[in-house]
Amino acid sequence: MKKIFLLFLFLSTLISAQVSRTGTNSFFDDSETADYPINSIFIQGEVENPGVVDLTNLPQNGFPVKDFSYGKEKNRFNGAYYVSGYSLYEILNLKNVIKINSEEFKPFVDLYVIVENEKGDKAVFSWGEIFYSKDNFKIIITKSARAINPSKMKMKWTPPAEPVLICGNDAFNCRFISDPTKITVKSFAGVFSKERVKEIYVPEMKVVNGAETVIKDISGIERRKFFGIGYGHGMGWKGTDNVEGFVFAEILRTHLKLDMPEIGNTIVCVSSKDGYRATFSLSELINRNDMNDFLLIEKTGMPDEGKYNLFATPDFFVDRNVRSVEKIEFLKMK
Description:
Oligomer: single chain
Distance between the termini: 76 Å
Strand content: 35-45%
Largest sheet: 5 strands, antiparallel
CATH class of the largest domain: Alpha Beta
């Protein structure tokens, strides 16, 4: 009887120790939390009243993230964490945008954002992946972080020592920068038609990435089916699309030599003959961890339709869809 009592006492102690360790069923809260003293950040560029903004009254958003680094010879896993912090969506909402090219092109789809720290590290984001996408709150500056440690291993991940810009949908951590202090809002500067021409058909796509490249044949690229429920920011309901298209990321990888370390600081502008254009970060195009890739849809080639249409499949709004893609431009931040 005494042995049974001692065994019961041992098991009770073990169970209560497990409960007190987490207190919940979550696998994301079984370690200590590291807090970071970030309260403000400087916003400049094409905004009204550039300057320091107070972050302390903003809501915080949290999600789990895997920190994964690219290496030429070997990639490296740096840890798993549950992070919480201020999203770029909420931060940028503190300033009104004043586009310098608004008389020529009013939509915000050609805007992009540069986030940098005092060491000169930079990460770029399209305005669309912050404000038009379905995951508006997964780009944050961390206010806190805690390790997600493997339960059957003795090792423990060490949280960062300072706040970090985290991108929840990125595969490689090309845009994770420590202690960001400044955000710049800009519109893409380029040469575009100022007339809304009716005949927008072009037979091929021109790529400007240092040198010019022409993409004529994409028949060997992976294809995927897509069912889209179209909703525009300005005009609302657009109907549905049930199409099959080429994976845009694979087109870029196949026809261009892309430098992995530069993924985090490169903006891509996709435009058509009539001057309509939209910006994308190179990272959101080719460095995703959710398989939600942009698609290039091949059309019939009518004069008012074009040959290839870009579908921004990860977006909630259809505003970054580009009809009859004519030019793809790359802009690297130095």
